[in-house]
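Q: What structure does this chain adopt?
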Amino acid sequence: MKKILAIIAVAAVAAPAYAGCGKKVASVGTLSSYDAATKTLTIKVMRTNDPKANKKATKITLTPASKVMGDATVDKLVGQQLSVISEHGKADYVVPLIAAAKKKK
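A:
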């Protein structure tokens, strides 16, 4: 009986550790502006996997854990297309999109 109660107690303590949201939103669009003071990206969204997202413009905040892929800095990406993976309005990854190179014949 003591073993069963111990297992139930351990399960009750451990269960909330797995109860995170984990919802990631992928947005593709053009970076309209970047505010360095508040570290906020304003993106004109073309495509997103979130049906509730505002498709006109979305504001996403950069955090210390946010990663910008490639060599470019965010302030130099204004006006270019990019993809942002975020969770609850905070960016996880910022990926600049580049056009595919034309094939030579």
